[in-house]
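Methods — Computational structure assignment.
A single polypeptide chain was analysed. Its primary sequence is given first, followed by the predicted tertiary structure written as structure tokens.
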Amino acid sequence: MKHLQRAIENLKKKILSLCAVVEENVQMAVRSIQDRDPMLARRVIEEGIQIDQMEVDIEEECLKMLSLYQPVAIDLRFIVAVLKINSELERIGDLAENISERALFLVKHEKVNIPFDFPGMTEKTISMLNKSIDSLINMDATLAH
């Protein structure tokens, strides 16, 4: 296996790992609001540091691959796509932190009813996230739509 292909396989593992951590944080953030659980909310906020570090590591890996291997065609498109998705995953992680900060605020106040299907919306969002990552890893453009 060529060095570039090994590096791409490693990059796939890293982006999947980041996606798993982000997905878990989103689910925990939503649960922290539903269950009014300040410990869970704090855990999401603390894990934001790990997500930020993973994002930096993946970005550095992509830039290293671009400079070392000078990829073309499909390999170049894959690395550029990972760069873009990487920053979006980090942003989603930040939004999970924001939800958890709101949960910490709400836990101090009287319970409020959420006027829409928050858990359902979360599940749909996570499903869309998973499909987009699957389309990237499997290089399936039809799944991305």
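Note: Residues 3-108 form a domain with the Methane Monooxygenase Hydroxylase; Chain G, domain 1 fold (CATH 1.20.58.220).
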